[in-house]
Amino acid sequence: MYTPMLVNCSNCRTPLQLPPGAQSIRCALCHAVTHIADPRAVPPQPPSSVPPPPSWNAPSPYSGAPPGPPPNAHGRKKAVIVGISYRYSRHELKGCINDAKCMRYLLINKFKFPESSILMLTEEETDPYRIPTKHNMRMAMYWLVQGCQPGDSLVLHYSGHGSQQRNYNGDEADGYDETLCPLDFETQGMIVDDEINTAIVRPLPRGVKLHALIDACHSGTVLDLPYLCRMNRSGQYVWEDHRPRSGVWKGSNGGEVISFSGCDDHQTSADTSALSKITSTGAMTFCFIQALERGHGATYGSILNSMRTAIRNVGSNGGYGGGDVVTTLVSMLLTGGSAIGGGGLRQEPQLTACETFDVYTKPFSL
Length: 366
Prior knowledge:
Elements: E1 5-8, E2 15-18, E3 24-26, E4 33-35, E5 77-83, H1 96-109, E6 118-122, H2 134-145, E7 153-159, E8 162-166, E9 176-180, H3 185-188, E10 191-192, H4 193-201, E11 209-215, E12 227-231, E13 237-241, E14 256-261, E15 271-272, E16 281-282, H5 283-293, H6 300-315, H7 328-333, E17 350-353
Parallel strand pairs: 5-6, 5-7, 7-11, 11-14
Antiparallel strand pairs: 1-2, 3-4, 8-9, 9-10, 12-13, 12-17, 14-17, 15-16
Helix pairs in contact: 5-6
Region (Disordered): 41-76
Pfam family, one: zf-LSD1
Organism: Acacia crassicarpa (northern wattle)
């Protein structure tokens, strides 16, 4: 079996996965090209009395860490933020790029993510490698987890279309795989939950934390995590076991993975101006930020409860969450009006995780 090789970018030193047989690779972050020397061309080194450097066995998202100096200090924060409006198409959405900007602001100003460690993919980017095509989204997901070490905090935020397609290997309880829709999905296809799980969940070593925030239709189990938190309208919850009957492990390699999704697998999410009263946002993204701004971010359960309450009240014309209670973050970012209507939201945010025993009551942190 082929074992992926990691090489450091010649410019920014980000670890990169080298495709089989490749002699060079371009970094998705800084775009520098790193050329790989042919090991057959390296002359043999004379024996030396100097002891060889230690082999660094730091955890890697792939099988073994590359040789070289020790990794950067643990505790790094990295994020990939994707917002797709599908502009000028029949699939156009109004609030997704707003969602991406809000999430970037939240991570930088509230959770102290370095600006240089956030990879934004939207149609507004001028860099062709940051347009949210299928290829660029795949590369961004690999970049997110490459070189991660215990103590690191990773975030994936996606706002755009989600869908489903028939599952044929029997590992989905409802018979459907959940998917994300890149900008070019009509020609290049969608990104299936199995691929997302393989790319960013299963490689994570112990001590690494990944939060996914997926504001899309049919997104309840789009990371294919083993457990889903099912809540009723009274706030009572149980954990559903979504492990495949085949016995294939869809969890991480010891890392902690928790996902907030915009709705259940059979539901659709919505753009709306009913929440902000200013412009269009994804309902899930707005309610997540609002929960943190209002002090409801103590635990994962309190965030989920706050999000569900806000959406239900708007859906029943309760008016909660808009007008004079627009959150600080959103009011600073979202200006101007929107023609999209509000009200009638029919979605239930979901919480999925690699493990169940304490996630709901566990303190939330990024």
